[in-house]
Amino acid sequence: MKYDGTLHLDGEVTPLQRILLSRRSNRRYAVGAASSDQVEYIEECAKAFGLRTGMEHARLEIVGPSDTRDEVVRAATSGLLGKANPWLSFIGARHFLLAGAVYREGGPLAKTEIALKQASMVMQIAVLAATEVGLGTCWLAAINHDRVERAHPMPDGARIVAISPLGLLPPKMGLSWDAMAYHLISKRRKPLDAIWRKERWQETPAERDR
Amino acid sequence: MTASRIIEALVSRMMAPGSAPQRPKNDADAATALCDRGDVPTAEGAPWPQGDVSDELLNVLLSAARVAPSADNSQIWRFVSVRDRDRKTHLAAATGESLASTFAHAPVIVVALAAPFIIKRARREQPFAMVDVPIAMVHLLLQAEELRLSYAWTLDCDEERVKELLDIPAELRVVGMIAVGPSPHGEERPRAPDDD
């Protein structure tokens, strides 16, 4: 067993771990649309998770190839915040995931935060399901939320939390998953001892030095 | 399309936040739980299978959380694992009346936190604590499910009380808590969903 955060249990990599390690934030997509089977699977997973775990404040929508999809992209990239992701305007992904949270504007902060947490968890289930069926995604929360909501109003007045392209990976992304896992992902992640404390909070040596 | 439908299989077995492990609320849930997890041996008065959760297993759970995506790759998640009995009892009280007993008897409690992070190019704090840490929690919970561990979790707790109990600095946020127990089957090895 390694204690270095590489997920292995006695050298085995499980099906879930393969998905977790394969997921990347993709900014390049091949032109083309995900199949209806793929989209359906993603919707089923998100819905099943939401029902099973009672994520009553979360809403997930998948917008397919349409004028609405194009308007969502224009809306997301508009305004000062939307300029954070200019690449979004030029991608081939034909679907988008939209994560929404139902909460009362001006309501208690704790309830708003619960709604945000739920929406994020449901979205991540969708992202992992997309990874499982070989599609690319990229979480985007730095967007023009108000305009996206106007472009695609969410059910029950849910507020947009984040969106993600959902599309075909370009051929060069077909790197072996283990190459990505071991050589790309792990090096970009903090070591476990930087994120894990035992029994109570204590500063790590690196934090003390800072 | 994948034939194995791994994510679907895992989420269909997941425990809801606020529910005790293997302590179904009604007959329909009971049938499902027994079918899913088998008859669970529990210690007297405790809703957990007997046994412990090794640091080795915690390592696997937190490693799953560690590879989650985050804004600007800021990786603001932090975790505190608690095994001390007294500390667990006090922590459990911060989860509310309905979950207190479950958490108090758990072999280990993992508290999920968000650390502040300044995005240099934007010169502002990363504002997505309530997004990024729940994403990491999803990874952890899915991993627990794949390992067939027992667990209970909540996104709602008395944040100030938890901070005080664990000496957590004021600038960190408490996002959720996950209580983890051993597999009811006494196994610690991952199983693919279609191994059933």
Description:
The complex is a heterodimer of chains A (210) and B (196). Chain A has 210 residues and is α+β, with helices and mostly antiparallel strands. Chain A contains 9 helices and 5 strands, in the order ααβααβαβαβααβα. In chain A, helix 2 runs antiparallel to helix 5 and helix 3 packs antiparallel against helix 6. The longest helix of chain A has 24 residues. Chain A is globular, with a radius of gyration of 19 Å. With 196 residues, chain B is of the alpha+beta class. Chain B is 37% helix and 16% strand. Chain B has 7 helices and 6 strands, in the order H-H-H-E-H-H-E-E-E-H-E-H-E. In chain B, the strands form 2 sheets. A 4-stranded antiparallel sheet of chain B has the order 1-2-6-5, sandwiched between helices. In chain B, strands 3-4 form a two-stranded antiparallel sheet. In chain B, strand 3 and strand 4 form a beta hairpin. In chain B, helix 3 crosses helix 6 and helix 4 runs antiparallel to helix 5. Chain B is globular. Classes of the chains: A alpha+beta (210), B alpha+beta (196).
SSE arrangement:
The complex is a heterodimer of chains A (210) and B (196).
Chain A: H1 15-22, H2 36-53, E1 58-63, H3 67-76, H4 79-82, E2 95-101, H5 109-132, E3 135-137, H6 145-151, E4 159-168, H7 177-185, H8 192-195, E5 196-198, H9 205-209
Antiparallel strand pairs in A: 1-2, 2-4, 3-4
Helix pairs in contact in A: 2-5, 3-6
Chain B: H1 6-11, H2 27-37, H3 55-66, E1 77-82, H4 85-93, H5 97-105, E2 108-114, E3 118-119, E4 124-125, H6 129-146, E5 150-154, H7 159-166, E6 173-181
Antiparallel strand pairs in B: 1-2, 2-6, 3-4, 5-6
| Helix/strand order of chain A, N-terminal first | HHEHHEHEHEHHEH
Major beta sheet, strand line-up of chain A: 1-2-4-3
**Count of individual beta strands of chain A:** 5
What about the largest sheet of chain A? 4 strands, antiparallel
Oligomer: heterodimer
Number of helices of chain B: 7
Mean pLDDT of chain A: 87
- Number of helices, counting only DSSP H or I runs of 4 residues or more of chain A: 9
Helix content of chain B: 25-40%
Distance between the termini of chain B: 21 Å
